[in-house]
Amino acid sequence: MSLQVKLEQFKTSWRHRAGDEIAELIDADNQLLQQILQSNHHRTAGQVFPPHALTDIFGQTVDLSLVLNGKTTVITFYRGGWCPYCNLELREYQSLLAQFNHAGAQVIAISFEKPEFSMMTRDQNSIHFPMLSDEQGRLAKELGILFHLTDEVKALYQKFGHDLPARNDHTDWLLPVPATYVVGPNGRIHFASVAADYRTRAEPKHILKLVEAYKHNNLSEGG
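Predicted structure:
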């Protein structure tokens, strides 16, 4: 079963539980977010993935440029461990991790959450690839995937018990748009997928095929 099928199944069950009014609010917000993304000029294929210092689950600073240097890397930006769609995506990458590694690629997940919440998400989903924190959203801002939640969605999330400022260690209600990047050993983006509708994601199996093709082309060219 593909990730998108799993996401659609959850979306259908969630819509039934939440009701039409809340579901329509989310639909309208996603349409608004699409307009915001179009004006953000987010980074795309061919551009350099910006180097930044992030934080690992143990609170240690990680120089992302050193992590990416000389390696093919799949980077998935997720909203947080409180998001069931994100958890489905993370588990899908975990299920394919050995194949990504065999294809010569590392997988990294990044969110705004404080390290202790990243660790919690890792443990709850049995994740075995690095999970890093962009705590102030600086990397997301440079990538063009940072946005403020509307008052309506903020109130809804508060009702659901999602205290984002507490989890993300800043007072603003900010999130990254779910995004997936394939970054080559030279630090350039080979593939970028940015989803205004957080209920849709780039298919990890498709990403794996891209990575495998990239490895094959490099070997064929003697690279």
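Summary: The mean pLDDT is 92.
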